[in-house]
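User: Could you go from structure to sequence for me? I need the amino acid at each position, not a summary. Structure tokens:
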């Protein structure tokens, strides 16, 4: 033991002497360097004192959130009759049960509620003048939907009363809505939803209202598409939020590719600052594409999300889907960069009992599923197809 202690002591002392020696060797050398090659800083001590401290690189903070969206929810009599559970009572939750695990995965999920939920007391009705039960809204809320877009060609079907009932119900269940409003004041209140430090704003417009005139004194009852107005409101929303999500109810029914007007409007909105553009109305899926800005920034546009839940059948009308888009926000000092990325899609199919199914799960629909995948990736080969919740 004693021997070990002595050795340890010797090792420590040797190391200490070595360190001191090295320091001794270094110091005169440094001094020598300074003396023979004085740096400009050393020469002028005053300058050194007044010079500002080196600027610290601001910390970079990155956050991420995903947005999910579904297309048209059109409650035909065929659909509400199946959902009926008693006199003026309905349950639409089973219809959404298979897609609920997917919808819940979005940080923010939005749906296009095409038919107004004016409630059964007003009398439910089907095409051409729809009025849907409140329970449709309850089922969407239960499935994880956070906001509904309600500027559609069926918004005015049953008049102001149905709209006000619907807005009351959305408010009562804590569901945000955009595109149709109670008043000018309600309309000017931009809808915002925040997730992971990323502020999303939501705007919604329709091409028309099936010939039913919008009351001149109440333009807030439904937002109509007007390129200049959309641009102004997108620009305003961009100043108040990180990400502008624009819903456009437009295009030709049953056409599987967007028309020139859709492309024009999407480009105008993108140039005004829209980050994500969600289209609907054609009742069939139209593919997504990127609109690239001159500075390289990209806007995601999907021209039509098809029918998510409706009584329409065949010729692609029973196919819809859930689109998922990621948003990355990078903040460095005063600078903020928003990037829309990671597009993904889940094709869905409505069966004859009006249950919505993820298409990948349907063994007898694989050919159809593959065709839809090809259709939806034709302008965006990198789009991912969701095959698990
Ligand atoms: Zn429509």
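Assistant: Here is the amino acid at each position, in order:
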């Amino acid at each position: 033991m004693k021997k070990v202690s002595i050795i340890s002591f010797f090792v420590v002392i040797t190391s200490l002497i070595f360190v001191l020696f090295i320091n001794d060797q270094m110091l005169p050398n440094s001094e020598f360097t300074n003396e023979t090659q004085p740096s400009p800083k050393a020469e002028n001590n005053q300058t050194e004192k007044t010079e500002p401290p080196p600027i610290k690189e601001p910390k970079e903070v990155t956050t991420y959130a995903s947005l999910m969206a579904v297309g048209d929810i059109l409650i035909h009599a065929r659909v509400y009759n199946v959902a009926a559970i008693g006199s003026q009572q309905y349950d639409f939750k089973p219809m959404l049960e298979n897609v609920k695990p997917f919808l819940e995965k979005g940080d923010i999920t939005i749906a296009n509620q095409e038919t107004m939920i004016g409630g059964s007391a007003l009398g439910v009705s089907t095409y051409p003048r729809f009025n849907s039960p409140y329970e449709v809204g309850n089922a969407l809320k239960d499935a994880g939907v956070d906001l509904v877009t309600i500027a559609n060609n069926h918004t005015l079907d049953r008049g102001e009363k149905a709209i006000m009932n619907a807005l009351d119900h959305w408010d009562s269940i804590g569901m945000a809505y955009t595109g149709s409003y109670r008043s000018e004041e309600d309309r000017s209140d931009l809808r915002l939803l925040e997730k992971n430090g990323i502020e999303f704003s939501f705007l919604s417009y329709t091409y028309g209202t099936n010939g039913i005139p919008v009351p001149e004194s109440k333009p807030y009852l439904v937002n109509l598409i007007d390129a200049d107005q959309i641009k102004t409101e997108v620009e305003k929303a961009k100043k108040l939020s990180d990400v502008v999500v624009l819903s456009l109810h437009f295009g030709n029914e049953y056409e599987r590719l967007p028309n020139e007007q859709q492309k024009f409007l999407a480009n105008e909105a993108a140039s005004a600052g829209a980050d994500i553009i969600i289209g609907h109305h054609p009742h069939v899926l139209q593919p997504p594409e990127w609109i690239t800005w001159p500075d390289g920034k990209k806007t995601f546009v999907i021209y039509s999300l098809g029918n998510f839940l409706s009584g329409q059948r065949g010729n692609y009308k029973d196919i819809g889907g859930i689109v998922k888009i990621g948003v990355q926000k990078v903040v460095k000092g005063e600078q903020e960069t928003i990037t829309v990325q990671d597009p993904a899609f889940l094709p869905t199919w409505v069966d004859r009992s009006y249950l919505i199914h993820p298409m990948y799960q349907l063994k007898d629909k694989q050919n159809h599923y593959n065709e839809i995948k090809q259709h939806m990736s034709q302008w965006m080969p990198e789009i991912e197809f969701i095959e698990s919740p």
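One structural detail worth keeping in mind: Residues 60-385 form a domain with the Purple Acid Phosphatase; chain A, domain 2 fold (CATH 3.60.21.10).
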